[in-house]
Structure formats: C-alpha cells, structure tokens
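ok so I'm stuck.
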Amino acid sequence: MTNRPNIVFITIDAWRYDAFGPAPDKHWLDRYGLSSKLHTPNLDRFAAESVYFTQALASAPHTTVSHASIMTGLFPPQHGVRSFFYERLPMEVKTLAEVLGEAGYLTVTLREAEDPGEPGILQKVDVLRGFEATINDLRHLTTLGQQAMADGRPVFAFLHLWDIHAPYLYSNWAKQNGCLDALWLKVSSLAEKWGIDPPEPSLLSEKIMMDFQRRVAERIPDVVGRIEMLFDWYVEGVTWFDRHRWPVVENILKESGLWENAIIFVYGDHGEGVHPDGHGIKVFNHGQSLLDDVLRVPLLVHGLPDTTPKIIDEQVSLVDLVPTVLKLLGIDPSESLGDSGLHELGGHSLLPRVNGQAYDRPPPLHFAELCQGGPDFTLAQPSPQYLYQRCVRGNGYKLLCHDGPVLMQRYSSWQDRIHRLGRKLVRKLGQAQEPHFIEDRATCRQLYWTDLQADPDELEPHHWQQDVPAEAIDLRAAVETLYQSAIRGPAIDTSDFDESAVLQRLAALGYVE
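replied:
not stuck anymore, here's the structure
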C-alpha cells in the first residue's frame, strides 16, 4: 500500500454554514423557528472527528465559479472563470487533478445526473480537467479504490453531491434509490394546503419539482411566508441528507479503502441565502448576492496526520484547499502550477492555523465575485441586464463593490427603495443598452463597507465616505490590487450541445427562468 494519503473532496452543494448541529451561530434558523427541525447526527459525528472551520468562505455564490476556485486555489479574477456559464478555465491554469495525476494519483470524479451522456456544467467550463475517470454511480468507487490500492496508487476523488440543492428533498440519487417518501409527504401537504395539483410520480424530474416549488411560492402572498416555506423545505432536505445519503457515502469510502488512509475535505460550495427583495422562489436561494449567508459554508477536514479534532473560528477560504493538499504532499506550487502559481493573493495552506502557527505570508483576505446575466441571457451573448458585484472580507470588515446597474442587497433603509427603482429602470432600458457583461476595473463604481461585528447580517452597509475606518481602506487597496491583473477565460464551446437543453437544465436547478 502506498504511504501517500488518498485525498477526497466532497462538495455538498448549497450547504449553508449553519445547517448542521455543531454550527455555533444559528440565528437565521432561530428567526424562522427551524433550529428544532434540523437533525444531523451523522454529520455532527463526522465533524467531531475532524477539524471544523466555522468561518470558511466560498469565492462565488454559485457552483461553477466556486469550483473553479476550489480546484485551482485561485480567486475568480485570477483563474478567469468569472460568470456562471460563460467562460471556461484557461489552459494555462492548472487544476489540482492535473497536478496529482502527474504525481501518480488515480484521479476520479463522481457525476450524478439525469442524463449521464450530457456534459455537466463543471465539464463545460473545464473545471474538471485532469480527472482520469468519471463515474455516475458512487458504488463504482469501491472497485476503483480497491484496484488502485492493489496497484499501489493513491486516489484523488472528487464527489459532487447535489442532494441538498433545490429542488429540496429531490435528487437523482434519491429517485434512483427509492428514497422519495419524505418528498411525497412534503408535496402532498403543500399541494393540499395551497390547492395545487401535485406532480405526476411517473414524470418526476428536477424541472417538474422546481416548477412545483415555484407554483407553491406564487400562491403565498407575503415574502416572509415564502421564505419560511422554502427555508423549512431546505432544512428538511438537510435532515434527509444526513439520515439517508451521508451514511451511504461514508460506507462506500470505507469499502473502497479510501477512508483509513485518507484526508477528507467536506464543504459546501456556497450556501443558500435569505433575500426579502427577491421574487418568487428567489427570496431564498443563491447566485444573487455576496452576503455572508450565501458565501459562508461549513468546512470539515478529516484525517489530518498528527492532528486532534478541533474547532477553528478564524476566517479561511475554499481556495485554501489546494495549497493545503500540496503542502501535505510536499509538492512545490511554483513547480507544479507553473504560471498559475499561488501568488500573494491566492490561497493559503490551512496547516499553520491547524497547528496554531502564524502564516508564512500576510494574513489572508477573502475575495468573492458575482457575475450574472439577466432573464434574456444566452450562452452566445451576455445580457445587457447584468449583475456584477465583488467583495473582499478580512479583519472583521467587508467591502462590497457594485459595478453593474442591477443591485441585489438586503437593505432595510432608504437604499432599498432606490435600488428597486433602479432595477425597474434597467428592465425597461435593458434592450436598448450596448451588450456589456464584465468590465474589469481596479476602481469600483459604488462602494459599501460593513463592520461585521456590529452588523453581522449586513442589514445597514455604509456608503463609502471620507471617515471610513482604516480596515475598510486597506480592503479597498487590496481589491484594487487584485483587479489590476484580472483575467477572463475563453468562451465555452457551444458547438457540441443543444443550448436550449442546457438552459432547461439550468432552469431546473433554479439558476435561470
């Protein structure tokens, strides 16, 4: 057996930072009376055996850009995947799978989909470049793992689990394994309460379930009621995942031989946030803002050598996973990553924080970016109705930069009325504007800063003014430095697939309407 550890990345898509037992802050759950409904004993036990980072952050509020950062150790303006489904990862930016493949690892990824033959969103943006094998059933990992052990090869496995993601309580795995009882109880209850026809069981799909979720939301007249309904449904989905799916994942890792000699990273790629100024199901989802309840996620690291389980409350980032793995394996980033090397504003190894030591570079800041097209967005042409935000977080403060005409924010002040009027104006004038999606600029058009200690929910961000605190001024300098060298990846290749089918898939997941 090889002495090099197996490396396992497990994405639990859309896993909120507070959506399991050990989370120290559940005030959002308490606000909607959901803390008592959340039961995650299996994930809680795994966390008790792991190093648990309570302040981990994603670099984007949706799947593709966040995974580009997870797999490269770089922030969006560094790796070039800037929007949800428009750019692909440049060839000069190497992924962790490529690096570990060159180091002799068997690299394998799990892709669970309704149509296994259709390229997935991560494949299309080239984030999964370097994986030697792709499986569509987790049980196949047992054979691959056992064969790799017999061959003396360590394994790097990336498991992308969609079970928590909307439509809640539904996933392809649940459908294929006959685990839809909780879903039908929920559907029956909501259909009866709101006088809606339930879906036909024989025709069940992601799209049909998302449509049902929308129809229920449309029947609820007030925003708070819609949030309560969706948040409750989400919490039931997390509880279901812990009871039915997570034990299966653990058992297969053990059967495959990847458990005992493995370092396992478990995290959410983004959260699911409360947006009272949204419409329909968008009052509770992701991809609309850079608020902390969308960017903050759990991060659990299991199996670190010579390390006892502990809880670490310092800010870390999902871009830190790649440098952590390379440090553990003794791989030099400057040699393995080439021109995309982890420079000063990229990820940091988590090992110094785990061992109670100081970073060998300045304390890390976290950057995140949101680039989104409007309702007429197509793969061939970005929409003139665009949403572009970026933020930097550190030292207890957060700086939010708005660079687009459409502003999505959770304001409780007069700014909310101004921004609503702005969105209406953009919808009227959008077709007359010149197409414009991302304009990299070192300076920002609109700046807001928040003291996260005083305002953790970011309800009252302060507009930029001369008497801003020194910490916010430092954040502004950092974000301007980062964007001076920002890059964009090449456009994705749309020649080999049906654009309408892809957009239907994105609509089924709630990303476009």
